[in-house]
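Researcher: I'd like a structural prediction for the single chain below. Treat it as a standalone chain; there are no partners to consider.
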Amino acid sequence: MSAKQASANLAGTVSLGGEVSVNRIGFGAMRLTGAGIWGPPLDRAEAIAVLRRAVELGINFIDTADSYGPAVSEELIAEALFPYPPDLVIATKGGWNRPGPNQWTHDASPAHLRKAVEGSLKRLRLERIPLYQLHIPDPAVSFEDSVGTLAQLRREGKIRLVGLSNVTQEHIERARRIVPIVSVQNRYSFADGEWDYVVEYCQRIATAFIPWNPLGAGRVAGERLDGVSRAHRATPHQVALAWLLKRSPIMLPIPGTASVEHLEEDVAAASLRLSDSEYKKLGRVPQPATARTGS
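Model: Treating it as a single chain, here is the predicted structure.
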């Protein structure tokens, strides 16, 4: 499948809380940082080029977090894209501390989240963050206190929309009693259906589902994925993304890369249409859900 005609517009759109619509292929900016999601990228010029090319390809949803780098991913986004296109939605997250490469420690305390939001506003050069997500529930902090802090920051005008990440259906239900939740971001791919029931719940309540690690299927899919990709003259990653887009109209994949070439390949998946039989061939039996960390 050629990347020359790639456009995120071909994926259709999904609504975030009925307030804004974005194209259903976004960009995950975690991989723009150094090894271990730590420090600056090896090739800063390429990282900047990837972000600018993403917007050229019609991507108007970019996902990041203060913990990516830390701070590096947000700073790169501002350097590459500010002043931002009027339709660009930048989503960032808070709730982790980063002691070092590949190290993550919880902190979703009200004080930390408030400080994290202020830092993201400054780095992204924004007066209000379009979408702010609790990165993960903190086992040492009341979930209601964490979500309540984001609700208060929303009332103060520092956050427009609130989302959750790495959560169960119970978390979503509890959060919705406090503040409208417009998106949920959990690990998900066609070969990893642990959170299928959360996808189904999000579809029922018209909440966008943002699958992180959406290309993880490429490592384990074997002959099923390869066979479908050959039939479409596409890459296995493109087929994995096409499966997600067909899985549900509330799906918003955010493949990430530090390469312009790979970015163009990912976005080209927006025009790939799987048949019902191909979709079923790639399906899998959902697994019981348990709490996980990540993204």
